[in-house]
Amino acid sequence: MFTFDQLAGFIAVAEELHFGRAAERLNMTQPPLSRQIQKLEKAIGTELLERDNRKVQLTPAGGAFLEEAKRLMALAARAPVTARRIATGRSGVLRIGFTAASGFSILGPLLEEVAEIIPDVDVDLQELVTGEQIEGLLTGRLDLGLARPPFDRDTFDSHLLYREAMMLAVPEGHRLARLTRPVEDADFKDEPLIMHSPTKATYFYDLVVKLLPIQHANVVHTVSQVLTMVSLVAARRGVAFVPHSATLLGLKGVEFLPIAGMDTEQPVELHAIWNRKLENPALRRLLQDLEFRAE
């Protein structure tokens, strides 16, 4: 195997086409430089330079190897800089998991802050439900999650990003949309209901069941994504309980109605969560600059 000293010697001779000038350029004498070139040619297994008493010139193999040698030397020069940038969080990859609802609410502003704080870090986005994000954070496949509670606070640090109200999504022109007050329990007791999946959308399912008198006999569809729920409402398949951020979807054929008591309670939470054993310097720098604090 050849060394970087041998590559530097070869590059100098190839550019100067003169052993004496190349040795002077490298602050060394000519005999050890000649030995470096000989060792390099032996390691590669072919002649790189044609030399006689009057001239030195590159062989075809030497001409091709010169470009590769320069590339290797450039990579070697950049490697320490790259390592320092990654160690200080100024380079690398940040893997962020997010729920579908956070994707059309807070994800955009957060990515703007990430780009400002660590502009040279590549961001890998993965749309995952909270349970999948937690698994990813535990296994190291994710660095940061935008997720719903609950989560193990002994394992994860977190920052509450925001709270919001739950709203009732109804088809455009629905009778409930004509109310001049927030929707009350009795108003929707006989409505066909599009409900959250108790296994794939556990957070919203548990929250809705806890806060509202759900008539399970009225459930006509069970889905896991807020976007799907709102799309079904637009198709006039029923009504659905969705977070206020769903109003940002802009789907036609849907109206969002306030629910009595939700405007002040704002029970829906979204947290930034990360493993307490974080190892990604880019994440550490981002958290410091955003001034996140464990709750």
Automatic annotation (TrEMBL):
Q: Where is the HTH lysR-type domain?
A: 2-59
- The signal peptide here is none
Which Gene Ontology terms of cellular component type are present?
A: protein-DNA complex
Entry keyword Secreted: no
Q: Name one GO molecular function term.
A: DNA binding
What the entry lists under PROSITE patterns is as follows: HTH_LYSR (PS50931)
Query: Carries keyword DNA-binding?
Result: yes
Task: Specify the protein name.
Answer: LysR family transcriptional regulator
